[in-house]
Write a structure and sequence with these properties.
The complex is a heterotrimer of chains A (about 180), B (about 270) and C (about 325).
Chain A: H1 2-28, H2 32-46, H3 50-62, H4 70-75, H5 80-104, E1 116-117, H6 120-132, E2 139-143, E3 150-159, E4 162-171, E5 174-181
Chain B: H1 2-12, H2 26-40, E1 45-50, H3 56-67, E2 73-76, H4 83-95, H5 105-114, E3 122-125, H6 133-144, E4 149-155, H7 158-168, E5 173-178, H8 183-196, H9 200-204, H10 208-218, H11 222-242, H12 254-264
Parallel strand pairs in B: 1-4, 1-5, 2-3, 3-4
Helix pairs in contact in B: 1-11, 4-5, 8-10, 11-12
Chain C: H1 4-56, H2 64-81, E1 113-114, H3 119-131, H4 173-181, E2 198-203, E3 213-218, H5 222-233, H6 237-250, H7 253-266, H8 271-283, H9 287-301, H10 304-315
Antiparallel strand pairs in C: 2-3
Helix pairs in contact in C: 5-6, 6-7, 6-8, 7-8, 8-9, 8-10, 9-10
Classes of the chains: A alpha+beta (about 180), B alpha/beta (about 270), C mainly alpha (about 325).
Chain lengths: ~180, ~270, ~325
C-alpha cells in the first residue's frame, strides 16, 4: 500500500514538475497568454509551489489577465519575494478596478493616493488621476512623464455588454501595443 | 397601638434634666467615675465643663442622686444671682441655719467655722457662668477654707475658660470636659432611652445611616438630639393619624429626620 | 402645633436647593467633556501634519517641470537600486504652501514605484538546466507549424542554447522595455522570414544615382547573428545600426524598422538610422507615418539626406 502511494505521488510530482517547466518554457517564449491558461489549468495541483504561482501570475499579467492575479495575491506569502510580488499585483489589480469605476461611473478619485508600479496600467492610472478628473472626455491622451516620446491612449469600449478599458501604447505616434482590461 | 409607640417615644425625648433618665454611656461613665473620685480627693473645687447639651446638668444631677444618701450634697440647678440670698441658701442647706437676716460673706465664714463634718459638704453649682465674678471670688475663698467643696459646671466658651483660669489657677482643682456624642454613642443613647421606655420596635428603626444623619444635624449634642427626636416622633404621630401608609415601620426615614430638623431650626430651608 | 404638610413642602424645597449644585456640576461636566475633546483633537491635528510637512520640505524651489523630471530621475534610481517594496507616500510639491488638510501619515517625499521581483525566474531557469538535457530546449523554430497564428515578431533569432533567449528577468526596468517596444502591431504578424542564403545586392549610391553594379553575394547570415548576439550584451547603436541596415538589405523591413527604432532610442542623432526607419515604414505601407517622422526629424536636425528622401517619397520616386 505504502509503495503504491509513493509511486503515485512520484508520478504526480513528476507530472507537476513537467507542467511547471512547460509553463516556464511558454513564459520564456513570451507566450504569456498560453502560459496563463496553462497555469490556470494546473493551479490547483501546483498552488503550493510559490515559484509556479509567480510564474502563472506574471504570465497572466503580461497577457493582460489582471483578474487572474486575485488568487496569487492571496496565496503568495511565504517568501519575501512572493510577498513583494503579491503587493505588486494587488496594486495593479486595485488600480484596474478603480480606473474602471472612474471611467464607467465617472467616480471622482482625484484625491486618492496609492503606490504605483512600472506596469503600463499603473502609469496610465497615475496620469489619469492627475489630469483627467478635471475634464471628462470619451478619450484621453497622456504623455509619459519619463519618456516624452511615449504616449498612451485611454478609452472605454463596450463588448458583449461589458465595459472594457483600452490602453494603447504609442511611440512617436506609432502604436506599440494595445491592452484591453475589464 | 402605633399611636402609642410614637407618642411614647416622643415622651422619652422630652428635654428635661432627670437623673432617672440618665443614660450610661461608656465614655461618659468614665468621666463620671473620674468625677466621683475627684470628689473624694482633697480638692477644693471641681470644674465640669462642656458645650451646652453635652450632659453637664444631667451628670450633676446624677451625681447628686448618687451621693445625697451618703454625704451632705447640695445641688443648685439655677444660679442664685444675689449674693446675700446665695449665702443665706448656703447656710440653710449646708448648716441648716435658717434666718431671715442677711448673711454676708463674713457672717457665713463665721458660721462655717462653728461646724465640722466628717465629710466635707459638697455643693454642686450648675450654670456657674452666670455667677458674678465677685461672688465667684468669695466662693473660691470659701473653698480655700476647706469647709465646703464645690463642683461647677460651665459652658465651654472662651470667656468662661478665661475666668476659670484666672480664678482658679492657683487653686488645686480639677476639671472634666464633657463632649458631644459620637455617632455610635448617639445610637446607643437613643436606643437605650427608647428601650428603657419599652420602645423596642422603635429602637430597631434606628440604624447606622439615620443615626449618622441625626449626628450630622445635631453634631452629637444630646440636647439637640432630644429636641430633634421629640419633633421627629411628633411628625410620625401625625402621619400615623392622617397618612399611615406613608410610614415605613422598618426604618426611620431620612425625609422625616430632615423635616424635623427644618422644624427645630437645624436646617435652614 | 406641627404643620406636617407645610414641613413637607419646606423639605422638598430644601432637597431641590441641596441637589441643584450637583446637577449644575454634572451638567457642566457633560458639556465640558465633549468641548474639551473637540478642542484637543483640533489642536493636535495641525501639529502632527504641520510637523511632518516641515520635515519634508527639503527640495529647492524650482519650476514644476524640472522638479518633476528630477523626481522621475530619483524614481528610476530607486527602482534600479532595489526591488523592495517601499511605503506609499505623497509627493510633496515644494511650491505648495503648508496647509492643514485631512490628516494622513506621510513618511517620505515621493511615491516610489513598485517593480516586480523576478528572482524566481532565474532560479527556475537554473533548475530547468539541471533537470533537462540539452536536447530538451525550446526550439523557437522558424517553421510555421509551430508558430501560433497570433505570434508576434521576436527579436532574437532561434538559438539552441536557452540562455540566449530573451528572458523576462531583467535587472533593470529599462532593459525590459526596449525589446517590447520594438514590436509593431501594424498587421497580423506573419511568420518570421528566413534569412536567404544569397542576395542580389544592388549597390546604389543614393545621391548620385549613377553607375550601379550588381554583386552577387553568398552568405549565411552568421555575421548578422553574431552581431545580434553581441548587441544583446552590448547595447551599442553602431551594432544595431548594422543590424538594421542588414535587415533592410535583406528585405526584412519589419526587423529593419524594429532595429532602427532601437537605434533611435539609444541615440537619436544617427541620420542613417532615421533614413532606414522611414524607408522601412514606406516599405511597410506606412507612407504617412514615414513622412511625418521624416518631417519631425528634419525640423530637428536639418538633415539634407532626410530632406532628399522626403522629397522622393512625396514625389513617389521612392516607394
Amino acid at each position: 500500500m505504502r509503495l503504491f502511494l509513493i509511486i503515485i505521488f512520484s508520478f504526480i510530482s513528476l507530472y507537476a514538475f513537467e507542467t511547471k517547466n512547460d509553463i516556464f518554457k511558454l513564459y520564456q517564449e513570451k507566450k504569456y497568454a498560453l502560459a496563463c491558461r496553462a497555469g490556470l489549468n494546473a493551479f490547483n495541483k501546483l498552488r503550493k509551489d510559490e515559484e509556479f504561482v509567480l510564474l502563472y501570475a506574471f504570465s497572466c499579467l503580461k497577457s493582460d489577465n489582471i483578474d487572474r492575479l486575485a488568487i496569487p495575491i492571496i496565496t503568495l506569502k511565504k517568501t519575501k519575494e512572493a510577498r513583494a510580488n503579491a503587493t505588486y499585483f494587488s496594486v495593479i489589480l486595485m488600480q484596474k478596478k478603480i480606473l474602471l469605476q472612474a471611467l464607467v461611473d465617472s467616480y471622482d478619485f482625484s484625491n486618492i493616493k496609492l503606490p504605483t508600479t512600472d506596469y503600463v496600467l499603473s502609469k496610465v492610472f497615475d496620469l489619469y488621476i492627475e489630469e483627467a478628473h478635471k475634464v471628462k472626455r470619451p478619450l484621453y491622451l497622456f504623455e509619459d512623464k519619463i519618456n516624452p516620446r511615449l504616449s498612451y491612449k485611454l478609452y472605454l469600449i463596450n463588448e458583449s455588454s461589458t465595459n472594457k478599458i483600452v490602453i494603447e501604447e504609442f511611440y512617436d505616434t506609432i502604436i506599440q501595443k494595445r491592452h484591453i482590461y475589464w | 397601638m402605633s399611636n402609642n409607640i410614637f407618642e411614647q417615644s416622643k415622651e422619652v425625648f422630652l428635654d428635661v434634666v432627670d437623673a432617672k433618665e440618665y443614660i450610661q454611656l461608656d465614655r461618659v461613665s468614665i468621666i463620671y467615675n473620674a468625677l466621683k473620685d475627684a470628689i473624694k480627693k482633697p480638692l477644693k473645687m471641681i470644674l465640669l465643663y462642656g458645650r451646652p447639651g453635652t450632659g453637664k446638668s444631667m451628670m450633676l444631677n446624677k451625681l447628686y442622686r448618687d451621693l445625697f444618701e451618703h454625704q451632705k450634697v447640695i445641688l443648685y440647678q439655677t444660679p442664685i444671682i444675689d449674693e446675700n440670698e446665695f449665702f443665706r441658701s448656703l447656710a440653710r442647706d449646708v448648716y441648716d441655719h435658717h434666718t431671715d437676716n442677711e448673711i454676708n460673706f463674713t457672717r457665713f465664714n463665721e458660721l462655717s467655722a462653728t461646724y465640722d463634718f466628717d465629710v466635707v459638704p459638697l455643693v454642686l453649682l450648675d450654670e456657674a457662668q452666670l455667677y458674678a465674678p465677685s461672688l465667684m471670688e468669695k466662693i473660691r475663698l470659701i473653698s480655700d477654707s476647706r469647709k465646703i467643696k464645690f463642683v461647677f459646671t460651665l459652658h465651654k466658651t472662651e470667656r468662661e475658660d478665661l475666668i476659670a483660669k484666672e480664678h482658679f489657677k492657683t487653686r488645686i482643682w480639677e476639671s472634666q470636659e464633657l463632649y458631644n456624642a459620637t455617632p455610635a454613642e448617639l445610637k446607643l443613647y437613643i436606643q437605650k432611652k427608647l428601650m428603657r421606655a419599652n420602645g423596642f420596635d422603635v429602637a430597631n428603626m434606628f440604624n447606622e445611616k439615620n443615626v449618622k444623619l441625626i449626628h450630622t444635624l445635631t453634631a452629637g449634642n444630646y440636647r439637640e438630639t432630644n429636641k430633634l427626636l421629640f419633633t421627629l416622633f411628633g411628625i410620625y404621630e401625625w402621619y400615623d393619624d392622617n397618612q399611615p401608609t406613608k410610614i415605613n415601620y422598618t426604618n426611620i426615614s431620612h425625609k422625616t429626620i430632615e423635616m424635623a430638623a427644618i422644624r427645630t431650626g437645624l436646617i435652614h430651608a | 402645633m406641627l404643620n406636617v404638610l407645610e414641613l413637607e413642602r419646606q423639605w422638598r424645597r430644601y432637597k431641590i436647593r441641596r441637589s441643584a449644585p450637583y446637577f449644575l456640576l454634572a451638567l457642566l461636566f457633560l458639556l465640558a467633556v465633549p468641548v474639551f475633546l473637540l478642542w484637543s483633537n483640533r489642536s493636535l491635528e495641525p501639529i502632527v501634519t504641520a510637523k511632518i510637512f516641515y520635515t519634508e520640505k527639503t527640495e529647492p524651489e524650482s519650476n514644476n517641470i524640472t522638479n518633476t523630471a528630477k523626481l522621475q530621475e530619483e524614481k528610476k534610481e530607486l527602482v534600479k537600486s532595489s526591488s523592495r517594496l517601499t511605503l506609499p507616500v505623497k509627493t510633496v510639491d515644494p511650491q505648495e504652501t503648508i496647509t492643514v488638510e485631512e490628516p494622513e501619515l506621510v513618511l517620505v517625499t515621493e511615491i516610489p514605484t513598485l517593480s516586480p521581483s523576478l528572482g524566481f525566474v532565474k532560479r527556475m531557469k537554473n533548475n530547468l538546466l539541471l533537470h533537462e538535457n540539452d536536447a530538451v530546449i525550446i526550439n523557437q523554430s522558424t517553421s510555421a507549424e509551430n508558430m501560433p497564428k497570433d505570434a508576434k515578431p521576436i527579436l532574437s533569432i532561434p538559438v539552441k542554447k536557452s540562455k540566449l533567449l530573451q528572458t523576462p528577468q531583467q535587472e533593470s526596468v529599462v532593459e525590459v522595455k526596449i525589446p517590447t517596444k520594438a514590436k509593431i502591431q501594424l498587421k497580423p504578424v506573419e511568420t518570421i522570414q528566413t534569412l536567404p542564403e544569397t542576395e542580389n545586392i544592388s549597390m546604389t549610391s543614393d545621391s548620385s544615382g549613377s553607375s550601379d553594379f550588381l554583386i552577387v553575394r553568398k552568405y549565411d547570415n552568421k555575421d548578422l547573428r553574431d552581431v545580434m548576439h553581441r548587441f544583446e550584451k552590448n547595447r551599442s547603436p553602431a551594432l544595431s545600426l548594422f543590424i538594421t541596415k542588414r535587415f533592410y538589405a535583406l528585405g526584412d523591413y519589419q526587423q529593419a524598422y524594429n532595429y532602427a527604432l532601437i537605434t533611435n532610442e539609444i541615440d537619436n542623432d544617427i541620420e542613417d538610422s532615421w533614413i532606414i526607419f522611414s524607408k522601412s515604414l514606406v516599405k511597410l505601407d506606412q507612407k504617412e507615418l514615414a513622412v511625418s517622422t521624416l518631417k519631425s526629424y528634419i525640423t530637428q536636425s536639418h538633415s539634407i539626406k532626410a530632406s532628399i528622401l522626403l522629397d522622393d517619397i512625396k514625389k513617389g520616386k521612392f516607394k
